[in-house]
Amino acid sequence: xxxxxxxxxxxxxxxxxxxxxxxxxxxxxxxxxxxxxxxxxxxxxxxxxxxxxxxxxxxxxxxxxxxxxxxxxxxxxxxxxxxxxxxxxxxxxxxxxxxxxxxxxxxxxxxxxxxxxxxxxxxxxxxxxxxxxxxxxxxxxxxxxxxxxxxxxxxxxxxxxxxxxxxxxxxxxxxxxxxxxxxxxxxxxxxxxxxxxxxxxxxxxxxxxxxxxxxxxxxxxxxxxxxxxxxxxxxxxxxxxxxxxxxxxx
Length: 250
Fold this sequence. Notes:
Layout: H1 2-22, E1 25-30, E2 36-40, E3 43-44, E4 52-56, E5 62-69, E6 77-82, E7 89-95, E8 101-106, H2 108-119, H3 128-144, H4 158-169, H5 174-187, H6 192-199, H7 205-216, H8 226-229, H9 234-248
Parallel strand pairs: 1-7
Antiparallel strand pairs: 1-4, 2-3, 2-5, 5-6, 7-8
Helix pairs in contact: 4-5, 5-7, 7-9
């Protein structure tokens, strides 16, 4: 009877998490206006090719995003996307330095900057200097929203973080995943959002808690760490808080 209650509780938790995630948006746009059709887990999300597509995200830890260009001479793009809890996700289609199209995670600030550039008559893609300024602006605003506390200097940039997170998730089980994740946190500065994204990679609660404890001392905005506790079980939340309290003691 107890095992049935546990199973039903887990199913309810997964249902609520999936429902909450599906209400969040995925925004994909092409930097230079190339038209495309977006597929999420093989489900077509726009009826006609467009340069900007906004759609609901599916539940679960990850999903497959495929881009089919209106220009049939351009190969499809395909990427496994890891869900970011509690926020919309933005991806830009652009050309790399080698001239090939790539799909890259970005922020809402980048889209605002692109729209402002077009409205002011600049048109086309933003220059590298403008993109750098936008990224710095985004990091700056993130710092101001970090509740005033800073455990390290600057969070890891998103493209490198997502690549590292994907590598961690590709490990066969939690043991090597945890080892890789701790190495990532030790060598970089992570935001609470990035720490949460890594936590979702683990299968067991013990691995999630172990990483949450380890990452605390490598967190850019430790005053927001209650958000990390929210993705753990209640008993783990108490354990994490005791650990944090022990570090804060003189």
